[in-house]
C-alpha cells in the first residue's frame, strides 16, 4: 500500500512515527515515552520524543485522507475482482487508564469516565470511535478518532462517516452493535446504498399484528413449527424471522435466534436487525 507519507510529513516526523510503531510492537512496551526511545533504539533522548508528542505540529487529517483513499481503492477493487460484498464495521472501544487524573501523579490530557459495555460500568480513559472496511479476509482501518463528550454524538459521527463513503457497485453492508441501531443510522446507510446489519436488544419494542410488545416477551409465544433450524459452522440455532414495525422504524426485519438446546430460553435469546 503506497501512500507517499513524505508528501504530508517531514523526515523527522516520519522517523518519530516509525520509532513509535517499532516500540509499540515490541515485548515489554507499557505506553511510556521511555519505552518508545529504548525499544525503538531511537537516536535521541526521551525528552526529545516527549517534546515531539506534546508540541509537534502536523496535520494528521492529511495522512488520514491518503489512508482512506488507498483503503477505498483496495477494498472496492477486491470486491469487484472477487465478487464478494463490502462490509463497513463500526465499533467503539475504551483505552482504559489505571487512575483518574485526580489520583495520577502525571495526569493524561482529555481523559474522562466512559461507559464500558464490556465491564458494565464507568471506566476512566479515552474512548475511540472506529470504522473499518472489509472484503473477504481483508480488514483495513478507515476512521479512528477519539470521542469527546460534549461534542457531536456517536450517532451523528457515524452518520457523517457513512455519508463520506463511495456508493458501492455491488452488495455492501454496515455492521454495528445494538446501540447504533436507530432511524438516523439506518437512513444514512440507505442513502449511500448500504444495507445495515446489527445486534438488537431483546427489550426493543416490535408490533406484530399491530400489538406493542417487547421482543423478549413476544418470543415466548413462538412455537416450534414457526422456527427453522440453521447450521452455522459447527453450531445449530433455531431461527424466527419477524418483519414489520420496530419502535421508531416503520419496516424492519428482525431475526430471533436461540442455540439448538435452548429454544425459548430468554437468557439465550439473541436478536439481529436486518435492513
Give structural notes.
It comes from Thermoanaerobacterium aotearoense SCUT27. InterPro entries: RNaseH-like_sf. By secondary structure, the protein is an alpha+beta fold. It has three domains: 5-55, no CATH class; 60-101 and 111-199, Nucleotidyltransferase, domain 5; 201-275, no CATH class. The protein has seven helices and twelve strands. It has helices at residues 11-24, 33-39, 46-55, 60-82, 154-163, 183-192, 215-218, and strands at residues 86-96, 112-116, 121-135, 138-147, 172-176, 195-200, 205-206, 213-214, 228-232, 235-246, 249-259, 270-274. The strands form two sheets. Strands 1, 2, 3, 4, 5, 6, 9, 10, 11 and 12 form a ten-stranded mixed sheet that branches. The chain has a two-stranded antiparallel ribbon with strand order 7-8. Helix 1 (11-24) packs across helix 2 (33-39). The protein is elongated. The two termini are 33 Å apart.
